[in-house]
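Translate sequence into structure tokens.
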Amino acid sequence: MGVTGTGTVGVPRSVLADTLLERLTVTYAAAADSERAGPMRAYMKDVAPFLGLTTPVRRALSRTVVAGTARPDEADCTAVALRCWQLPEREYHYFAVDYLRRHVGRCSSAFLPVARQLVTTVSWWDTVDLIAAHVVGALVAADPGLKRDMDAWIVDDDLWVARTALLHQLRYKDRTDTERLFTYCLRQSGHPDFFVRKAIGWCLREYAKTDPEAVRAFLARERGRFAPLSVREALKNIGA
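Result follows.
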């Protein structure tokens, strides 16, 4: 896996990716539903064109695509993800995200630049949030040294990178680095964008399922620094 002079990750050669992409494009295209595609694209604010595959249909087709194929290594995961991202229709991106969720345990910390490239390309919440919680979160959990990367991501100018840093601990529960979580929320408490303010509330609300008193105490001290949206989201299930 190489990084080009522009800072983008190059697509490695992968026979497995060749097989999967050939199957994927044929299988998905054959099931495309143009009547559904337009409303799906509109719902996602025209971030990408759609084939019109509902989630149950898409996942059933995906099982057919991957049936009988070998387990990937990190290069295979990289090739599958980046090649799917080169295709315009959003369902191919969803396939890549699902594939990475299943196989992220076969990837090392060196996969983080690939995850960042996916987060910052054709960016919208539908892919970013899953990559944050299931891919980046898993990579950081496996290699605590990547916390330093998250410390840089939280102050990144790209709102989707910052949102990923906020959400990467979403599934950690009692393994959450509480100090980092609260620090990250404070770092972005004044962010003007809805998606960052919403992510602050979401990650606090999720951690409140594990330690509601810690979240209440944190907001009792710092509530005035946060947008009302963030506070409402954080306290939605536990009250003031």
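Note: The chain has a mean pLDDT of 96.
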